[in-house]
Amino acid sequence: MTNEVTIPLLPCPSIDDIVDFYSVLGFHTTYKQRKPNPAAGLQREDLNLQFFEIPGFDPAQSYGSCIVLTSDTRQLYQAFAAGMRAAYGKVLVSGTPRMTRPRARKNADGLSGFSVIDPGGNWIRIFQNTPASPTPAPTGRLGKAMANAVVQADSRGDARQAARILDSALAHPEPDDDPVALVEVLVYRAEVAMALNDPPTAAEMLARVERVALSADDATRAAAAYEAATDLAAALP
């Protein structure tokens, strides 16, 4: 047999909220019903998702999740982020719904990945299906701390443990720390703070980013982190 297609069926408290959110990300509605059970189907190119409504469902208690494989995680992230900026004036980085940024995942052989947490509390986990080039293992004290924190917050959803890992790394600076790695850790700590509804800590971390001295080459390497910092600053209350 060939051409089989699997479509996740995920829970939510409101299919209307789900449809509205995913339309921001570029999805269109392929199917919607109210009776006998509220449900909706959504599609963006080859990405298909379906949802069913449960009255009183608590997104914070959801275990709904699925994996999406794509050839370019950054391109898909940028498309989703553009939709969020157009609809909300910012990339959603805290609360529900929200979105993480593409980062190498230590627990996925170093492949890039990011997650969309939708209004139903479902984690849509997007991974690069083939590496563009071999991803080196994280090196240095800060790089290893970053890799471990990403596993905790972006994969397991444990932002508090990620904060502990990053805070420990930031509390013990060393002379040979890579300044680009420091920027990346500070920006990620700010993102984790936003996920924990802690804007003051996020603002503190972003202020520290501005004080890191970088060479021109370092600034180029840190471009993605600075882009993330801009999005986070826009999301601060």
Summarize the structure.
It comes from Micromonospora gifhornensis. InterPro entries: Glyas_Bleomycin-R_OHBP_Dase. This protein is an alpha+beta fold and 237 residues long.
Number of helices: 8
Question: Are there runs of 5+ residues with pLDDT below 50, and where?
Answer: none
Distance between the termini: 53 Å
Q: What is the approximate shape? A: globular
Quaternary organization: single chain
Overall pLDDT metric? 93
What CATH architecture label of the domain at 138-232 applies?
Alpha Horseshoe
Query: Major sheet: size, sense and barrel closure?
Result: 5 strands, mixed
Q: Radius of gyration in whole Å, from Cα?
A: 19 Å
Look at the helices and sheets and give the structural class: alpha+beta
Name of the CATH class of the domain at 138-232: Mainly Alpha
Share of residues in helices: 40-55%
What is the H/E string? EHEEEEHEEEEHHHHHH
Q: Roughly what fraction of the amino acids lie in strands?
A: 15-25%
